[in-house]
Amino acid sequence: MSNKPRTVFIVSDGTGITAETFSHSILAQFEAEFKFIRIPFVDSIDKALEAKSEINANASRFEEKPIIFTTLVNSDINHIISQSNGMILDMFHTFISPLEKMLGVKSTHAIGQFHQNIDTQGYKNRIEAINFSLAHDDGQSHKNLKDAAVILVGVSRSGKTPTSLYLAMQYGIKSANYPLIPDDFERGNLPHEIQQFTNKLFGLTINPMRLSEIRNERRPGSKYANLENCRYEVSEAEEMMKKVHIPTISSTHKSIEEIATTILQHIRKDSKSYY
Amino acid sequence: MSNKPRTVFIVSDGTGITAETFSHSILAQFEAEFKFIRIPFVDSIDKALEAKSEINANASRFEEKPIIFTTLVNSDINHIISQSNGMILDMFHTFISPLEKMLGVKSTHAIGQFHQNIDTQGYKNRIEAINFSLAHDDGQSHKNLKDAAVILVGVSRSGKTPTSLYLAMQYGIKSANYPLIPDDFERGNLPHEIQQFTNKLFGLTINPMRLSEIRNERRPGSKYANLENCRYEVSEAEEMMKKVHIPTISSTHKSIEEIATTILQHIRKDSKSYY
């Protein structure tokens, strides 16, 4: 019998992506290794029985019982998985029962509610925002910049592109991004095209040593990646951001998700709500 | 006193994005309207007291008590929020206690574990994959196509770009995408550059009427958007996919997340696991 790592199953009638992300987060609280197996689209009795077999086969192969996160709306399907050989953490029913009590109504128990409906305005906004962010990546276009909810500025490789795309994909936010380059620093002014949009600008900055590392991965030994040059660009960019009074965040130790959340706090009128 | 919609707070010591997505999914089970307010980065007593005040102000302004989803690792912070005037759904402690029992160890209770650490290989892979997918969007480059885990093919506007970017952003999967265009259909062959990679290809198809709608939003009244032309392109593309025996999925009624999950099932060797 093999011992480790312990297997974690995520069993869902939808994609299971949210449950999977959650299981990663919560298990990161333990100093142990886990192997994650997601079983998506378990929306029939047959698929439930198949998933149960797979879980039980795993349970008998390893010394440590698997952990099973479930988001299964249908009671019959849920019942089958709940009898698998492992520890069940039921993300759906754990919360749905107290919510039903509080709201004083039964839930619809509709499979398919749990995944994103592509006919909603929210979903259409996401697709449209992805197209917008791609068209306005790296200053490629200044057409329709007035439609952007935010325009990220910063030196090359400060994290503008992934942040723009994340804002679009997760929140349907039209985000453009514009690089600040040595030409701008010599002229001592923001790129002409974005000067009228200072109220939409958000600056990304970065530690010059980290920037040099990142640039060296792309163009080893170049002037572009040189530490002195990175120091110069970052210092000039920061000065320019200060001069035009725009909010700024350092991407040095922050994930895309954290940067996006901070930007959202600024651009939402009530600073915290969304949708 | 105003009545609806009921407010849902998401209070987290990190970004709260996972909890927010989860709360949307679970509340979609109820036929009611909700207003979501996310309060991120609640990682100090002061911020907890501030969040509690905001929640209580909401509770006294509206007839219906707010619902409060929390992911707060620190017990003192969690205790403050748990005394807010509303219904608490504690996503952290609900699951951490049974896990501690089962695993026979205490969790680290470290704030910051709950959010993505940018120094991990997984995070670096995501950023690298985003750059790869952007460079290989819409057949822009065929350099390093051998490094792609998957190459999506399909007619223009069948959903290749958002799916590629999602695979990169969520899973760190290097995904290229190549359009199938009338030139290819006339020649009766896949684009030359991808012919050697049929084992990496995954086809996206789409209902011609839906395609025509999407294209008409971009270029109203064009031949490109014309229903007959869409029928022709889709039928030719499907025939080509069949001829080269590649797996195919229709994007007509599927979200990016569902398409990505289906693709992952195909490209993962063991068809379900990942990471």
Layout: helices, strands, pairs:
The structure is a homodimer of 275-residue chains.
Chain A: E1 6-12, H1 17-27, E2 34-39, H2 45-61, E3 67-71, H3 75-82, E4 87-90, H4 93-103, H5 121-135, E5 150-154, H6 160-171, E6 175-179, H7 182-187, E7 201-205, H8 208-218, H9 227-243, E8 248-250, H10 256-267
Parallel strand pairs in A: 1-2, 1-3, 3-4, 5-6, 5-7, 7-8
Description:
The structure is a homodimer of 275-residue chains. The first copy, chain A, is an alpha/beta fold and 275 residues long. Chain A has 2 domains: 6-103, Rossmann fold (3-Layer(aba) Sandwich); 121-267, 3-Layer(aba) Sandwich (Rossmann fold). Chain A is 44% helix and 15% strand. The first copy, chain A, has helices at residues 17-27, 45-61, 75-82, 93-103, 121-135, 160-171, 182-187, 208-218, 227-243, 256-267, and strands at residues 6-12, 34-39, 67-71, 87-90, 150-154, 175-179, 201-205, 248-250. Chain A has a 4-stranded parallel β-sheet with strand order 2-1-3-4, with helices on both faces. In chain A, helix 6 crosses helix 10 (256-267) and helix 8 (208-218) crosses helix 9 (227-243). The longest helix of chain A has 17 residues, at 45-61. Chain A is elongated and about 70 Å long. Chain A starts with 5 loop residues before the first strand and ends in an 8-residue tail after the last helix.
